[in-house]
Amino acid sequence: TLGIGSAVCATGAVMALAVAVVGLWALPLFSLPLLLTQMSLRRYAAVRTTYRQTIASLARATEIAGYTPAGHARRVAALSREVGRDLGLSEAELTVLEYAALMHDIGQLSLVDPVPAGATAGLPVEEQRRIALLGGAVVRQTGVHPQVATVVERLADPCPEQPVAARIVRAVNAYEEKARDAGPGGPLKALEELRLGTAGDYAPEVVGSLARVLSRDCLTWPVAG
Q1: What is the separation of C-alpha 186 from the centre of its chain, rounded to a whole number of angstroms?
Q2: For each successive 10 residues of the chain (225 residues), what is the average pLDDT?
Q3: pLDDT of res. 154
Q4: What residue ranges do the domains of the chain occupy?
Q5: Burial grade of 225 (CB within 10 A; 0-12, 13-18, 19 or more)
Q6: pTM for the complete prediction?
Q7: Are 97 and 165 in contact (CB under 8 A)?
C-alpha cells in the first residue's frame, strides 16, 4: 500500500509538470495507467477474497463430516492470529499462521475412524504425527502456499524443532480442546494444563502470549460447549 500510494503521488506531480509542457493531453495519457492499476488491484482483491473463502470451506469439511465440533477451526484460527500478533509476527506470517490454523485438522478426513470430538491433542505422538502428515499432503494438493502445508505437517514435531506458527497452532488447538472438555472454569483449567506442559509439549513463550491475549479479553474467547 505504501509503494502504491507513493507511486500515485509521484504520478500526480509528474502530471502537473506534464500539463505545463504538453497541455491537457497529459491528463488522459497519465490517467490510463492509473485506471488500469485500479482495475488490477480490484481483481487482485477479488482473487484474495475467493482464495480465503476456499480455505474456509476446506476447513469446514471436517465439521460437515462430523470429525470436529462446529466452529472449532475458526476459533483456533482467530485466537492463533491474536497470539501471533502478540508475538510480533509480520502480516505475511500471520496470514500463513491463520491458514494453517484453519486447516490444521484436515488430515482427519483421511482416517477410517474419526477421533472423538476431533480431540487430537490427547492422542499418542505417533498418531498425531500421522494425522499431521496426512493433513499436509491434503493442503499441498489444494494450491495453498507451501508454507501452510509445512506448518500443518510439523504440528506434531518436538516443540523445539517446530516453526513458530506450528508452535502457536499446537498450543491454541490444545487450549481449545481442553477448555471445551473441562466444563465450568474450562478456560482457566486448560491454560493451567498448558503451563504444566511447557516442559516439552508447548513453547513457554507461546503459552505466555496465549495467557496475555486471553487476559486482555477477560477469558471471553468462545469455546464450543
Answers
A1: 24
A2: 76 77 75 78 74 75 83 92 96 94 88 77 85 89 86 92 95 89 78 80 92 76 52
A3: 94
A4: 1-50, 65-216
A5: exposed
A6: 0.74
A7: yes
Among 166, 25, 144, which residue's Cα sits nearest to residue 83?
Answer: 166
Grid coordinates in use for 200? 516439552
Pick the CATH number of 65-216 from 1.10.150.170, 1.20.1560.10, 1.10.150.240, 1.10.3210.10: 1.10.3210.10
Burial of 78 (0-12, 13-18, 19+ CB in 10 A): middle
Closest by CA to 191, choosing from 166, 165, 217, is: 217
User: CA angle, 80 as apex, 76 and 85 as ends, to 5°?
Assistant: 155
**According to the model, what pLDDT value does residue 224 have?**
52
Cα–Cα distance measured from residue 156 to residue 174, given in angstroms and rounded to the nearest whole number: 12
The residue written with cell numbers 510480533 in the block is 88
How much is the pLDDT for 166?
96
Cell representation of residue 65: 463430516
Provide φ and ψ at 204, rounded to 5°.
-55, -40
* Close Cβ partners of 30 (under 8 Å, ≥ 6 residues apart): 11, 14, 15, 18
DSSP for 35-82 reads HHHHHHHHHHHHHHHHHHHHHHHHHHHHHHTTSS-TTHHHHHHHHHHH
- Torsion angles phi and psi, residue 123, rounded to 5: -80, 160
Q: Which residue has the cell 495467557?
A: 211
